[in-house]
Design goal:
This protein has 40 residues and is mainly β. It has strands spanning 2-10, 16-26, 29-39. Helix content is 0%, strand content 78%. A 3-stranded antiparallel β-sheet has the order 1-2-3, with no helix packed on it. The model has no long low-confidence stretch (mean pLDDT 94).
Length: 40
């Protein structure tokens, strides 16, 4: 199964960031691809 995830957070310097990635689940194992982090 292929899933897309995105999460938003603030780091210790109060900079707001968003992180997204694609996760591939095969036989109970998880593989993450195309991770990207940006400031918002």
């Amino acid at each position: 199964m292929v899933k897309h995830y995105i999460t938003k957070y603030s780091d210790e310097k109060n900079t707001r960031k968003a992180v997204s990635w694609i996760q591939l689940d095969i036989l109970g194992k998880h593989f993450c691809f195309f991770s990207r982090e940006i400031e918002i």
